[in-house]
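Blinded run. Sample ID left blank on purpose so nobody reads anything into the name before looking at the predicted structure. Input follows.
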Amino acid sequence: MVLILLLSPTLVWPESADPDKRSVPTPEQRTQQSESTGDSAAQPATQGKTELAITTAALAPTPAVEKTGNSEGKQSKRMFWIIPNFAAVSADTELPPLSAGDKFMLATKDSVDYSSFVWTGLLAGQSMALKSYPELHQGVAGYGRYYWRAFADQASGSFFTEALVPAVTHEDPRYYTLGHGGFFRRAAYALSRVVVTKTDSGGRSFNFSEILGNGMEAGLTNLYYPPEERSLHNTAVNWAAQMEAASLNNLVREFWPDIRHKFLRQK
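Blinded prediction complete.
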């Protein structure tokens, strides 16, 4: 009752006010009131459009983002411009698995790229200078014999280790760069990739592609090297040499981004 008595004058006053004393709005005030009414009417429509745009953007599919490494861990297609490096993956990079056809394409790139022919020429010259196979003789003709055999070695090795065996064992023949940590940690990682590799499903497995593939390449050489070089001992030595080359190749691959960035000033 007390609250009603106290509030009743306030509630009743506007109704009991003299209509003659009420202020009449001027034309300018009427114009402002109409503009305010128009703005208030337009505001819900604008707000509805904004909410619709936000909802549409939220429902739109987000494009897949590839996680790539920084410039210091970035690999290039070739090392020192003459060594094929198509199977190397930059540090901190996630890639989808390779199909069987992709693996054969990778082996083809490593075999017939212009750098492969240059690198084969250097290896053939080194073998001839060291007289690794005296039966092939010296001179231009001897160099030709060394060259096509060296090319057959690297091409067959690429197809065995990057295409044929990985397609059967479902292994990923690419080298995934670590790119961070100390020197010894990265070196140990690079050497371990000779016996441990990534599978197509994302797990880890014994590296049959490298071990078995190089063994198949060593056995194949018995078909085109001189008869004096065809023996079980020489095949084992050839396989060991291929494994040593794979280990050194992994070491160079691991630190190649650092060489490019720090010494060659390349990004």
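Unblinding after everyone has recorded impressions. Residues 27-59 form the longest helix (33 residues).
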